[in-house]
Target: photosystem I
Amino acid sequence: VHHIHAFTIHAALLIFTKGILYARNTRLVSEKLDLGFRYPCDGPGRGGTCQISPWDHIYLIVFWMYNAFSVVFFHYFWKMQSDVWGIYKTKMLHLMHITGIGDYSINWNEPS
Model:
């Protein structure tokens, strides 16, 4: 589970760093700062490719940070439901489900 946290955070930070480093100019678009957040794709006029705009970096940052927060929240609530919100009866060696409907025996030697 922790690998997905590391991946989403690193992806967001790498896109953020690339956005900062290439916000002013690149080899293909030297006047990127003067063009603002949006500029047309000239295709062959700029070396045959379209550069990614600053808006694209912002969109990707928001997407990856939303993804990272979603994974963190899912992991937190899954952990709460599985570990904390369950009721453990030590005398009977039973684990009650969060809803109180089921009764799960963790003592496999004795029938429940």
Observations:
- The chain has one domain: 2-85.
